[in-house]
Structures are given as structure tokens and as C-alpha cells.
Amino acid sequence: MRSRRGLVAALGAVCLAVLCACSGGGPDLPVKHLEGAASPPDGTSDPARSSALERFYGQKVDWSDCEDGFLCASVVVPVDWAQPGGATLKMAVNRLPATGDSIGSLVVNPGGPGVSGLAFARSAPRYFGAQVREHYDIVGFDPRGVGASSGVKCLTDAAQDASAAEDSTPDTATELAAAVADAKSFGRVCEARTGALLGHVDTISVAKDLDVLRAVLGEDRLSFQGISYGTFIGAWYAELFPWRVGRMVLDGAVDPALSAEQYLEGQASGFSKVLDAYLKDCLDSSDCPLSGTVTSAVAQLGRLVDSVDANPLPTRSGRKLTQSLMTTGIVGSLYAVQSWPTLTEALTKAMEGDGSGLLAQADRYLERESNGHYSGDVVAANPAIFCLDSAEARTPEQIAVDARAVAAKYPPLGGSIAWSGLTCAEWPLKAVVPHRELHADGAPPILVVGTTQDPATPYAWAVSLATQLKSGRLLTWQGTVHTAYRQGSPCVDTAIETYLLSGDLPATGTRCR
């Protein structure tokens, strides 16, 4: 959830911004190569053997040095997988070779949707444990419509400033009409500036691109670590190509069976739980600007959020902190415990009439630089992808009713999160990815990781996905942060790395602290 623009939670952005309390060296883990040839089940055609797709699966790419030990390349894929003879696009890929004896490639994606996988792979030396780096080539990619892979284009920087500051909780019929008109205009601008690609940035198409990447890398099976919304990519890959799955970690899982309404309410619930945890921590400190119980602190914070709806706060930059920017700043600060002290300081200033701290947090989350330039593509790619992945069948009036209910249930952030469904309701293109359970029947074991107090991908989603997948195994971390790997739990890190290196799963029911 970024603003009423409809940018639902950029679920992986925190992984780039906060490579958190990474644990140090662990035990020496066993290493085993993947075994067994990959072949489709009877009656299933393998696209890798299709003559119509030979030019994609059989392509040879030129890897070139691109600094810091990385190699970069472009992989050609069809814009429309239903018409492979038509237009193509170049998917940008980078690779960091293993430091020792490689057992294969580990393709990674940090989610978003819309976060750059190239940028995330650049963090591999800090993010992955030493043994994972020793035995895997780490491969990143920008999914279609993201960054260097023909990124979606929507608003100019100035227009994005205005959009991010817009009213995130329309209260009257006039405000709702203005919000609907703005959502329609936004979709038309994206369509005009991006062109035909806008209708083909869905996750099923990305999963098919991934299988081409697997072949280009010379791998019989795809080993993959998906983080946050990247788990949605991994789950769909496993559904479409279960015989091609290698070792797959899905950390901070998205539940593919959820409707758009359920998805947004789930996030409202997740952020509400973590907000309560933050407030409890804040109230235990001497510098907390709030007082009393957690319930009373929620009410105090709610009054602050409500007050800036009509009276935005001034900031040192001269820009105003609107309600939308305030809630974005708060939400962005809840992804990681490490951000809580900064949030406390920002709230203290806001309650004194200075919105500068929360504006800075919102800008960081929205990838807005001090010169006013939005450095990332998430603000454009996020709704373009999500609206194709998740059908929004509700009318604006129905969204208004639901948003009021969510706002009452999960104050003071729930309303802004629930209202973000409006962009997809007015998106110019229909969703193409169905809401349904994914089973990946025939896939080898898949490790699903859930954090009990994950704000953006609630733990219940990980439980659901692990249950849906025929070979899913759930690993639980009793933590309060978005995603689990390399967030400070040696138990989690060892379990995930053991699986990646040897294929050995943690015991059923494993819970890490």
C-alpha cells in the first residue's frame, strides 16, 4: 500500500532498503547436487520442446562484465505468449558466479510487484550466506514491465508527486467521483505511454519467461528463491512447470486463492498487528509521543491521521504532508523493527506540527530522491502488474462500503489500504490471472516460509500456500518483520540454507524464534 493511487503493498521493497540484522557464519552444511532428469508427466507438452518456441528456448546469449564480478545479458521472450511469432522484448538478467564449486543457478526475485530483481541480486554478497554464495550462481532478473525489461511508464515525476499526495480516503460523493476520475485518467496515461506491453505484464507471463531463463542458464530444473510477491511468481512457475522445479524457497508468501478484496483486508490486518506491536514497544520507552494503553495509542494516532485529511502538515522542504503521505510513511516504517525508532521520532515531530520526518519515510518508501526524481519503477509497474494478476470486480461504491468497514476494523491504516482497490476497479485492461489454489502436483518439495507477525504478507497466507501445494513444507518464524531469511534468526537461516544446499527440508512443524 503506497497511496490511494492503488499501489498495493510493494511487498519486496524493504528487502532492498533494509538488509537487516543478518546472522553471521553458521555451521558447515551438507551440499548435494540436484538429481534426476526433468520430464513432463504423460499428456503434458513441454514448451521447451516446441518448434514454435525453439528460438526462445534455444537462444544463446552473450554475457558481458557489468562490474563487481557480475555478468549481464538480455534474454529474448515473446511479448504475448499466445502469439510467440509476434513482437518480442528483452528481459534483463544478471549473474554473480559462485565463489566455489557451483551446483547450479539460484534465480531470485524480491517481489513488489515491480521491484528490480537486478538490483536485488546486487545485494547477494550481503544477503546470502557464505555457503550459498559458494555453491550457487546467483541470478537476478527484471520481470517484464520492470526496470531494464521494458519498464512500464506512467506519470512524470511532478505528476507522481501530486498523485502520492492525493486524498487516500474519499469521504464524500464529490471526493469519490474525483478519485474515480483520477483512477481512470491514471490507467489511460499508463496505457498511452507503455503501449501494448501493458496488457502482458502479468505473473503467468513472467513464469513462462522464467522457464526460458532456466533453459538459457543451462539448467534442467529451476532453483528459485522468491521473496514476498516473488512467491507468487514462484508458485505459478511450480503450477505451470512442476517437473522443472528444483529447490524452491517462497519466503513471505502470497496466497494465490485470495480475491482482491481479501488480499487488501489481509494486508490491513497484517499492518494492524504490527502497528500494535510497534505501539507497545513505543509505550515502553521514555521518548514515545503517545501514552496510555495500546488501544488509547491507536486512538491518538488515529486522531493525528484524521486531522491531516483537512489540514496537511508543513515540512522543511516546503511540501505538505497529506493524509496519504502520512499513512505511506507510517506503513513504510512498519516493515522492519529497525525502522521503529525513526518512526517514533517522525511521529513526535508530526504531533508538534512538523511533517518532515514522515514525509522522508514516505519518500524513501516511494523511491523518491531529494531532487524529486522517482528512481524506481515500482510506482508504475506495481499497479500494472497487480491489476492483471488480481481481478477487481467491485464497483467504486462497493469499494467505499468495504473500505469503511475495514477502516473501522483496523484503524488508523485500514481505510487507506482498502481504498487502494480503486485503481484496479478502473484499470483499462482486464485481469488475466485467476484467483485459485495452486497445487503444483508432481513438483518436488517446496519450502514455504511464514513470519507470524509479517505486516505485508500475513502468516495465514503462508499457511494457506503451504497447504495448497502438494509438496509444500511450512517453516514458521515467530518474528515481527516482513519475510524471514537473514532477518536475525540463525534457526531460519540454517533451515533455508540446508534446504537450498542439500534439498533436506526442516522437520514438519518447525517453528523458529
Structure description:
There is one protein chain. This protein folds into two domains: 13-19 and 51-152 and 202-258 and 437-512, Alpha/Beta hydrolase fold, catalytic domain (Rossmann fold); 157-197 and 264-425, no CATH class. Mean pLDDT is 94; it is low at 1-23. It has 513 residues and is of the alpha/beta class. Strands 1-2-3-5-4-6-7-10-11-12 form a ten-stranded mixed β-sheet, with helices on both faces. Strands 8-9 form a two-stranded antiparallel sheet. It has helices at 13-17, 54-57, 117-122, 124-127, 130-135, 157-165, 173-194, 203-216, 230-240, 260-283, 294-310, 323-333, 340-351, 356-366, 378-389, 396-409, 414-419, 422-425, 459-468, 490-502, and strands at residues 64-65, 71-78, 88-96, 105-109, 137-141, 222-227, 245-251, 313-314, 320-321, 446-451, 472-477, 511-512. The protein contains 20 helices and twelve strands.
Which descriptors apply to this entry?
two-stranded antiparallel sheet, 10-stranded mixed beta sheet, alpha/beta, 20 helices, Rossmann fold, 513 residues, 2 domains
